[in-house]
Amino acid sequence: MTRNLKITARKTDRKNCRVFGHVKYLNSQVDARILDLSLTGAALEMKGPLHAASGSKVRIEAENLGLLEGIIRWKHNGRVGIQFDVNSNARAQISSYFRFFHKEMRPVLAIRQLAKAGANSDRMPHLATSTLKS
């Protein structure tokens, strides 16, 4: 991460994803969902409490990613930011995930807002119906 005027910025872009796995810290394990991922880190949503402070070393195990190790950089409202250990194995695993398994995901809030707006309108246009009539 780079620092400009005491503002921390990411070095690499993250891509939205929904990968399920586990986070291990010492003898505890918590189920988690990886929300976004890059070659250098990830943001996770925890299914339970993770009793680890910022700076703690953790392991992430996910089916499509394998085993990744990293350091907790931030925690907030059940979400955790992890910076991966920089090594060639971790980069290869993440590159492999993006090549073979990754599917572009939209943020969940945008979909919910569209569904809510559609429920409030009297009539939603249907693409197939409008093309058949014209």
UniProtKB/TrEMBL annotation:
PilZ domain boundaries: 10-97
Entries under Gene3D superfamilies matching the protein: predicted glycosyltransferase like domains
GO terms, molecular function: cyclic-di-GMP binding
Listed InterPro entries: PilZ_domain
Domain of life: Bacteria
Pfam families, per database record: PilZ
This protein's name: PilZ domain-containing protein
